[in-house]
Design brief:
The protein is an alpha/beta fold. Helix content is 30%, strand content 23%. It folds into 2 domains: 3-89 and 283-352, 3-Layer(aba) Sandwich (Rossmann fold); 118-268 and 358-374, Rossmann fold, CATH 3.40.50.
Length: 375
């Protein structure tokens, strides 16, 4: 039933864009579309309204005919295509309060997302041989089992052997809230950095504030050159000021001598699941397991390369939830043929759209950091 989908996921090189893999993607999307169309009423309604069916999906251009789910509606309805007992994992987009977007994964979908994510990160060069100390700037997984960013960060532990693992955002049993002890984390970082490479994962704002504190305590600290940053979610510093990948990389190089080429970022949405990892140029590449487009928010007409539009995302891996096509609230420009040499489309710029904030993991985390700064 999912012959083409499984063949697509089995392709190890996540950026091997060619005619064979393009055909696999189209056929996998058609398989996924057909699966959900008979199980999820809203997709059936939307498809009928737009006069689209799986039989219309025969080329790469055709996949963009599939009516997308808007991420705002995914905070209200689950859009599940399998019964509750078949759900193997549920992940949410918010770490604390507010409406939560969730993604549902059955056992096969969970297996597929883990395989494609690992293939993507290895293809981007994130895997290293030397053992490292991990400091994860995210919610402690013991107390945030369903938070999407914490699950994603935990998956990143596959790409270098761990000498130790430390979560930065702790859970306070007394207040029933998460909190960030900047002094504890800064001292821990200094201790670990003198022993082995340190790999920092998670929210950039927390990494930024930790480094600010580290340089107060030990201003001459230089990390092992094999240290690595895999940031993700909310590109602001500890004061909420927007940063670019380039300015963040320059900051870490100047403060702790962390090589700029080792500072990477992962863009992703819990509603979609596919990771978009950055290359040495700091832009986010789309793997063969997905497709992306910048679209007009009213007509869904595709923008040309370099023109801004709402980010639409397409992927066939999930058979539990009809998120094969979704429309985000992020405004992006899409380009092609990055000078890093990786083939395919990439997200050249990202900013939030709309007049209200869509509360996700990064916004919830920023509020924790704001509380920490006030103490």
């Amino acid at each position: 039933m999912y012959y083409n989908l499984e063949k697509l996921i089995a392709v190890n090189n996540a950026f091997d864009f060619n005619e064979t893999n393009d055909t696999l993607f189209v056929e996998a999307m058609k398989e996924n579309y057909r699966h959900h169309l008979t199980r999820e009423p809203y997709l059936k309604y939307s498809s009928d309204k737009n006069n689209v069916s799986p039989d219309d999906i025969n080329t790469l251009a055709d996949i963009y005919k599939i009516p997308p789910l808007f991420v705002g509606t995914m905070k209200i309805n689950s859009f599940a295509s399998v019964p509750p007992e078949e759900i193997a994992l549920t992940l949410t987009s918010s770490g604390t309060k507010g409406q939560k977007t969730q993604i549902l994964l059955d056992a096969d979908s969970l297996r597929r997302i883990e395989i494609l994510a690992e293939n993507t990160f290895i293809s981007l060069g994130y895997k290293k041989e030397k053992p490292v100390h991990y400091i994860i700037m995210a919610y402690d997984r013991k107390n945030a089992k369903d938070v999407g960013t914490s699950w994603s960060d935990e998956q990143m532990l596959k790409f270098a052997e761990a000498k130790s693992i430390h979560w930065a955002i702790d859970y306070n049993e007394a207040t029933k809230e998460f909190h960030f002890d900047i002094n504890r984390i800064a001292k821990l970082f200094i201790e670990l950095a003198t022993d082995a490479p340190v790999r920092l994962l998670g929210f950039p704002a927390f990494i930024y504030q930790m480094v600010e504190e580290v340089t107060k305590i030990k201003p001459d600290l230089a990390v092992d050159p094999e240290s690595f940053v895999l940031a993700g979610g909310g590109w602001k510093n500890h004061l909420g000021v927007v940063m670019t990948h380039q300015s963040f990389a320059e900051y870490l190089y100047q403060k702790i001598a962390l090589p700029k080429e080792n500072i990477r970022d992962v863009y992703g949405m819990v509603e979609h699941g596919v990771p978009y990892g950055s290359c040495s140029e700091g832009v986010h590449h789309c793997p063969i397991y997905a497709r992306i487009a910048a679209v007009d928010p009213l007509t869904l007409e595709h923008k040309n390369y370099g023109e801004e539009g709402l980010l639409a995302l397409y992927t066939p891996y999930n058979t539990a939830l009809s998120n094969l096509a979704i429309l985000s609230t992020d405004i992006v420009t899409i380009k092609n043929n990055c000078k890093c040499g990786i083939k395919g489309d990439y997200i050249a710029s990202i900013r939030r759209g709309g007049i209200t904030k869509h509360r996700g993991c990064a916004i919830a985390a920023q509020e924790i950091l704001d509380k920490s700064n006030k103490k």
